[in-house]
Design goal:
With 404 residues, the chain is an alpha/beta fold. It is built from 13 helices and 13 strands. 41% of the residues lie in helices and 19% in strands.
Length: 404
Amino acid sequence: MFQDFNYLRKYTLLNAINHFGPISRTSLVEISGYRPATVGAYINEFIENKLVIESGSISNGHGRNRVMLEINRLHLCAICISFSPRHITLVVVQTNGEIIAQKKVSFSPESPSRATLREVTDTVSSFLRDFEDKKFIGIGLCKFLFEYDHDRTALDEWIVSELIPELDSLTDIPAYSFSDVSLPSIAEKNFGVARDKQNFIWINMANDIRASLFCGGHDVRGADNAAGALGHMVVDFHAHDTLCTCGSRGCVERVAAWPAVERSIAEAMRSGVSTKLTASGITPEDLSIINVRRALDEGDRLCAYSVKKAAREIGLAVANAVNLLNPEMVVTHGFMLQLGRTFKDELEATIRENVLPENEAVEICISNDFENPMLLGAAAEIFSTFLCADNYQWLYTLSVTDHE
């Protein structure tokens, strides 16, 4: 649909400020080609509506200092809602990535109740009251990747037929539903260690193993929003244990995620293998990532064997992904990193041993400590939608500097 010139001018300037800020009015005139009076009028409107703030000034060596402009990231907010097998998490996120309010609501994804709906909408209403001085630009819904044995049909129907209509009647804030596949990499791109990267792989290592991909400056979702299933890459063709949730044997998730490490150590303890865990009064039923880490720090051989084995199997899968996609960076995430240097060193060594020579320069780093990257990814998507950023990608390829 054709947009009028006021629309185009407004969003050209907003996206330029978002990308280049802090930036002066003079540079905005140079980028946009609009007359100074036109740029000035829009900037005054943005400031009046608290979309843009003046954030200091710089000298260009002659004449008056240039006043610098930025998006008002403390004023623009989103409400983001994520769903896991036991909880609904609701947060208020500023567009600088800071979570300023959070609440968890218990629920069952197989049979969401009317009481759950009421608690969610009451929480949204409470957020709006508590932050009435903010501008809410969207409500984002994102669902965790449940295991294959969870039926998501009831949850999907509840969201579409009950939750979204209820939110629509409660507020005039647009609601969006996002792909859980790409949100973690979007969060890392906007708020984390991959801000300046165009190609990277985000790897979660916890109760499951999964990836979120960013290639050529874009998140990768796949034909059916199913990209990134790294955990179901087969790394052990000789595995004889029970089937993975996907129906195969030898998947990296089945043989190397935390439940596999826990299971391996527990079985060895029950068979009488010597370990500092037993000497400390830990039983197979008491195993936790904390006491396994403590045993590792004390030089326990059983824990070191199981943890290193898992790290090698995950590392092999990651190396295959690196060879396939040729990323600049691998971003590691998840509570298995709490296993410390024993795990992390073995993981990195395995990746580097198995990548092709042209991939040897890949950076391997730890994610920012996001409790919930899904929610931050949804907030970033809402902000991008608010700016209509997809229509202004040409701006994001430019480089402009305000010279002193």
